[in-house]
Amino acid sequence: MDVAISASSQARAQVQGDFASYVSRPKRPLATIVKTAATLATRQEISANEFRQMLWRVYEESVEPFLGPSSTSGSERSERYERLRRSLGAAQLI
User: 0.85 cut: is pTM over it?
Assistant: First the structure.
């Protein structure tokens, strides 16, 4: 049982890291990130509520601190965050 809990924790950490990385500086295509999330949802390793919590944390940590009247970085991050949120919604993950 401990191994299963550890695997789920590792999966959650990986997905949240993928979300944050995509919003900050995309390294992986959005479609790949959404597909990974969908796979984990299908395996019931991560629930829709957990995805919503992850998104909120990513917004608080990777978008909100960079928002400001003259911040181009913040607007780019905000746009990527919205793309991620919409893609997860379209995949019915949140």
Answer: yes
Rounded Cα–Cα distance for residues 77 and 41 (Å): 25
Contact (CB, 8 A) for 36 and 15: yes
Per-residue confidence (pLDDT) for residue 1, from 0 to 100? 47
Helix/strand/coil for 67: coil
Structure tokens at 10: 């590792």
Q: What is the distance between the alpha carbons of residues 32 and 39, in angstroms, rounded to a whole number?
A: 11
- List helix spans (H) across the chain: 2-24, 30-42, 48-58, 72-90
Which amino acid, one-letter code, is at 89? Answer: G
